[in-house]
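JOB MANIFEST
job_type = single_chain_structure
chain_count = 1
residues = 254
[input]
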Amino acid sequence: MTQTLGLLASLALLLAAGSARAAHPLITEDTGTVGAGNYQLELTAELARQSEEGTTVHGAQPAAVLSYGVLPNADLQLGQPYLRIVSDDGANREVIDGPLDTSLDFKWRFYERGALSLGLKPGITLPTGDDERGLGAGKPTWGALFIGSYQPAGPFAFHSHLGYRRFRNTLGWRESLAHVSGAVVYSASEKLRLVADVSADTNPLPSSYGTLRYTVLGLSYSATPDIDLDAGVKLRLNGIVFDRSLLFGVTLRW
């Protein structure tokens, strides 16, 4: 059981490291920035539960991402995810919990013309988590996203990104990983947006091939111009962890 928990913790670490930290609950990043001198704080949580062969596993991954606008078209972002996984087979209960590796990213929208904009988002993770329990890579990692957004007149907007991460680690996992993601956003009103997202990641297990594929369905509601609330469901199309999870978040701007 301990080995299984370690695998789940390590995969959560990897997904957190490679995550775009997009406008929650989306996985796909967009080219939007917060504006020079402005701050944004995203508080999110992913909750999951799965039962199999008499064992129930609960997972919770809260995270906080603070963005600061260093330029009108560029943000500096600091992220800190946390993880708690509990496994219970009726006779034994095991828990892995603690902070994951800290991330630092720079998001730059370098091109805008009409409805089309392009961006680049390089970033690193710092080995602040406990790699002996699967909560940290044990080494710094680095990666980048190439982002495209298309927002024509009307209620629909489209976003996509391609990514690469050099996932240096002490876990014995693959170190060269790719990521692709795409999303569509429908503005049902000035305050309510419906979102759909699909993504694929390189399988990090050296003994496995193919990709880990996920889809997200959700919504975002602007309670005020400076507060957004969101919720969604994340479904595993092909992967090695929870079949589904619930997503919740709040975004604050000032």
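[summary]
The chain has one helix and 13 strands.
The chain has a mean pLDDT of 88.
exit_status = 0
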